[in-house]
Amino acid sequence: MKRICSCALLLIVLAACSADADRENLTHAMNAYLAKRGELCLAKYDWPIDVTPAEFAAGARNAVQMPVLAKLGLVSVSDASVHLKTDSGVVTTEVKRYQLTESGRKYYLARESRTRASAGGTTLHQGDFCVARLGLDRIVAWDPPVTGNAHKETVVTYTYTVEAAPWLQDPDARRVFPIVDRVVQGARVAKLQQAFALTGEGWVAKDYLD
User: Fold this and answer.
1) Does 12 map to a domain?
2) What are the tens digits of pLDDT across the range 142-161?
3) Looking at the 3D structure of the chain, how many domains does it have?
4) With the CA atoms of 13, 31, 198 and 4 taken in that order, what torsion angle do they form, in degrees rounded to the nearest 10?
5) Using CA of residue 68, residue 94, residue 91, residue 82, what is the dihedral sign?
6) Is residue 130, in this structure, part of any structural domain at all?
């Protein structure tokens, strides 16, 4: 009986320790989060990607980025005809169709994510084109925990390390992916933030609770 009581007391103490918003517990939580969600991806979920003449004329994102990926050997390009719905009916349009090459497929990862649809609701994606992985450099600070949505919550500020695809150093890649370039160049210097909530399993990134 004494042994059972001692074990129960130990579990209570361990649970209480894991609930503390301190550097050790938040470092553990941050490392766990980045191990699962540390990829830096381009929101290019579905392939092939077609780019229309109108997108080229407007300088749309894919119209600017896909030719650079083709130059780097990550995608191939071909001509294709597609049927598009317009206000006046269905029209046939010639497009440039971009498909991942063998080199490019190395960067397409199975990764579940959701995006909000313009008409409401969300769309579930099973993969993405990811070009770097972030790791924890150090925790800079964290907010005093507050209670919200039935959980204690805190926001952690941290610096990070980066393992980036070598081709991201290409000048054209840096030009057409400016946000990615800022993240890569900010390794160990720039600060990011992540919200955590206290659950029965300790501190967990709020991304998993939404």
Assistant:
1) no
2) 999 998 777 899 999 999 99
3) 1
4) -20
5) negative
6) yes
